[in-house]
Write a structure and sequence with these properties.
The complex is a heterodimer of chains A (128) and B (352).
Chain A lengths: L6 H16 L8 H19 L3 H13 L6 H10 L7 H22 L1 H6 L3 H4 L4
Helix pairs in contact in A: 1-2, 3-5
Chain B lengths: L12 H16 L3 E9 L6 E11 L5 E10 L10 H13 L7 E5 L2 H4 L3 E5 L7 H6 L7 H15 L17 H15 L5 H12 L8 E3 L8 E4 L2 E5 L6 E3 L3 H7 L18 H12 L5 H27 L6 H6 L2 H13 L1 H7 L1
Antiparallel strand pairs in B: 1-2, 2-3, 3-5, 4-5, 6-9, 7-8
Helix pairs in contact in B: 5-9, 6-7, 6-10, 7-10, 7-12, 8-10, 10-12, 12-13
Classes of the chains: A mainly alpha (128), B alpha+beta (352).
Chain lengths: 128, 352
Amino acid sequence: MRDLPQSRDLMTLARELLLDELLPLLPPERERDAHLIATAMSIAAREARADDWPGEIVGLLNGFYDEMTGDPLGRFAADLRNGAFETSPSRTAAARAILWRMTIEKLREGNPQFLAANGFTGAGVKGE
Amino acid sequence: MAATALPRSDAGPVDRQRALARFLAEASGAGEAEIGRIALLAGGAIQQNWAIDVQIDGGRLAGPQRLVLRCDAPTGVPSSLGRVEEFAVLRAAFAAGATVPEPLFACADPAVLGKPFFVMRRVAGSALGRPITLDPALEPARPALAARLGQELARLQTIRPPRADLDFLPADNGPQARIAEFRAYLDRHPNPRPVLEWALRWSETHLPERPPPVLCHRDFRTGNYLLDGAKLTAILDWEFAGWGDPDEDIGWFCCKGWRFGRLDREAGGIADRAAFYRGYESESGRRLDPERVKFWEVYANIRWAIIAMQQSDRFLLGGARSLSTAITGRRATECELELLMLLDPGGVAAYA
């Protein structure tokens, strides 16, 4: 129902305009600002087209706890603080898997270059 | 370098310059001081640094002087020393033989510029991280630079309590107290951070033995030292200094967040650890224990994550309209990835 082009395409064009045409016109002390703007635009574009990974993490946590809870992320964080899973190797492994998954998904959106630089090449390119 | 007006809300730039000139003349025992160029130096999210060229007539600094005036930026972050206290730390570091700008005068009187400040000599060089880690011209010099930085760190750690001149520094309560502070911060934050909680739990259950405290810089890293060509000219930014564990600064220096595009070079993005450790061990006479360094590197990543979140809090909670500070909060997740890589190395193969 929305008009075309889609916002993500407009964002991509705007970013190209900023970096390719406006950046060379800026004084050196403002170049970092232009890169920051480009970074913010990239994050916004990736978030706009990303899968519903936060929903998937909530689903994983509900499965982890075997029940629906009101604030699964808050409960998970509190349990990790208290070492709640440390006596069970399988629970520890499952908890770590969720930590990895959540962190990688966040960086896919926020900073895929950092993921790639750390060797997460398969994880880093999704959504780019 | 655009700004040329010294900070103060209730006086114009001319008044401020006159007040500063009077202060410099009085503090140096001169008849008169005439200020020429004033320019705000780049960087300084937490503090402002002003380059000041001044002609001083008589006294102990007679002649043309190139100085830096350091004062608070409009918004700071918690745990930062005041400028007069930072001046005292800088003076102690200078006396200990560390490579720092010579500290000259401190002023606590708000009548001069509206806020406390101190003045030090201006030293040549640049602190920009990426040129330091990536400039090919510096390639041959980097291992020696890393060793030199290790030596510098050992030298500043010769400053140990008790010290009457540093009696404002709180006693070192150890990492357990800092873990409690981090948790208290996370409790106030709207978004739960499971990775940080997990890493804090690991830290709590792997506390190292506490050696006698030393002066920790607490921001000793690439980006906080000046290089003039390949020559180290100054260690900067002493605002977070305090008593602590000698390995805390080692972990911070090697923390991945300060490698500026050279993640493979674990000593500040400039060299491998061996070069940095060699310099430190030769100067301190103390052998570094990799397990202790690991603890402090984990701690460094937690701390950097929380500092990053506090930066974006300035936008989220404080209303600061700054993209630079707002976006910094995103870096917390980079620290979380590093924490996972440090504490669950098996996961790297599984998820990479």
